[in-house]
Amino acid sequence: MRRSSKIYYFLFLISVTCLVTAGNSGFMMSYEEKDPDYSGIKDVINSYFALKYEAYKSNQPYDFLSLVDNQDPKTNMWLSAERDKREIEIFINKTFDTKITKYNFLAT
Predict the structure, then answer these.
(1) Fewer Cβ neighbours under 10 Å: the N or C end of the chain?
(2) Same structural domain, 19 and 72
């Protein structure tokens, strides 16, 4: 082996050793282990989609007030946009007599 090849091989071995050690020491933890709020956030997202698709199924407006803090101005802007979008969807559904026949949501 040439000297430069030996240096590259040595650097490669050091890099692999560092990655393996970092992986074993918890450097590469899952989101669930890093963030204690992960399951709560996941539950809110699941509730959001469940409410959204139940509203689609029944052709009714959304009711997200139980999921959000309506004191935040950004949240109120989002709620307003979601309500406006849903009103248009309801109008189209009623005008053209369309219905959601099947829906599926899977959160992992």
Answers:
(1) C
(2) no
Q: What is the mean pLDDT of the chain?
A: 75
Total of domains in the chain: 2
Give the burial string for 47-64 (b: 16+ CB within 10 Å, else e).
ebeeebeebbeeeeebeb
Which is more confident, 4 or 74? Answer: 74
Within this chain, do residues 18 and 50 fall inside the same structural domain, yes or no? no
Q: Confirm if 14 and 76 have CB atoms less than 8 A apart.
A: no
Considering the domain architecture, whether residues 43 and 64 belong to the same structural domain is answered as yes
Give the predicted TM-score (pTM) of the model.
0.56
Output the pLDDT for position 42: 83
Rounded to the nearest angstrom, the gap between the alpha carbon of residue 35 and the centroid of all alpha carbons in its chain is: 14
Q: Are the CB atoms for 51 and 64 separated by under 8 Å?
A: yes
User: Do 57 and 101 fall within a single domain?
Assistant: yes
Domain that holds residue 20: 1-34
Instruction: Pick the closest to residue 62 from 91, 86, 88, 45 (CA basis).
Output: 86
